[in-house]
Amino acid sequence: MRVLLINTSECAGGAAIAARRLTDALNRHGEKACLLVRDKQTSAVTTSRLPHQWLLRLKFLWERLLVFVANGCSRKGLWEVDAGQAGADITSLPEFVEADVVHLHWVNQGLLSTRQIGKILASGKPVVWTMHDMWPFTGICHYARTCELFQSQCQRCPQLQRPGRHDLSCASFRRKQQAYAKGHITFVGCSEWIAGEARQSALTAGHRVVSIPNTYDSEVFHPAPKGAARQRMALPATGRLLLFTCQRVSTPRKGLAYLLDALASPSLKRWQGLLTLVVVGQNAEDVAAELPFPVITKGYITDEAEMAALYQAVDAFVTPSLEDNLPNTLMEAMATATPCVGFDIGGVPEMIDHERTGYVARFCDAEDLAKGIDYVLDGNNHDRLAEAAAHKAATVWNVESVVRRYIELYESLSHKI
Prior knowledge:
Blueprint: E1 2-9, H1 14-28, E2 32-39, E3 47-49, H2 53-70, H3 94-98, E4 101-104, H4 114-122, E5 127-131, H5 168-180, E6 185-189, H6 192-199, E7 208-211, H7 226-232, E8 240-248, H8 256-263, E9 275-282, E10 295-297, H9 304-313, E11 316-319, H10 328-335, E12 340-343, H11 348-351, E13 358-361, H12 366-377, H13 382-396, H14 399-414
Parallel strand pairs: 1-2, 1-4, 2-3, 4-5, 5-6, 6-7, 8-9, 8-11, 9-10, 11-12, 12-13
């Protein structure tokens, strides 16, 4: 079976990592999978780059301008939304023509427009869409926060600086309704949480919504001795290490402010002199210097082997994200036997079993986050949590299970043609 997977980037971001891993897994299992991207960062023969890059860049800038104007010419929250008004027509490309199944992933920022998604549906090819955030079933936002208007009709978008009854979210919502009516989509939620949210959207009416998690590479992410990993990553040989990582550290929804508050909590006072915070991501150097613990910054790491060594080297991983689906980082950390701490939000509580594989803190509660960090670092809990975390990763997110579910889904759709 020929499967065409489509994602804006080949490597940058969680959706890119998930799409690339699935492409590789499908090919190892005898399928003919190709990943089509706008931004290609490797020489992988299974990844194809869209032609006319200069035109795609112009379309991307044009769409950003449209969003900027619709946002009242304000940069605030500019990257939290996408209008889906610009992108490439892929339906004449050989990769599309030869495909038996078209599998969309994260297609924003000038890769595919809503109109072009409608054209893909009109081709009659089976379409699967893995939802790495909420954009496929909202008007313009990637995460709706407390807004529930997507359940009926997006308008007066709270993420726009100038919301209105006929604002950008309303227009985009209606364009999606028109596009989605041209065919059938099987929406796939990486978590049960996002699948449940999608089922409530007016945009998914008449379409199928299922849940299949992402997977990871067990040959890369696995338990290993901490001493060797710390030496490889030039980290302190003694003491406790706590890891925080995201693509851009300064992104508000990643919750760095809550982590900084948690680290200043009296609940972690006993770890002063013993704990070091390791930060990975763009703008990692912006972490407050006045923290009561030393900070080591590593910048943005794209090499998976290097990232695996970092997980193996630390004692715990913390994700204070305020909006998230099924973070690859949690999966990777748990696979290396590293206990995790995160807020009770999105798909996080599906991944972390409270006080069994880590600690799920009350949402936006920095003090409870601090208690969670203390809990997983405690010698009376750590080894038990680490063993359970590795076991869960190996049994729930293993590549054999995940890729088989996708192949079964593709085959069921192909038989309906």
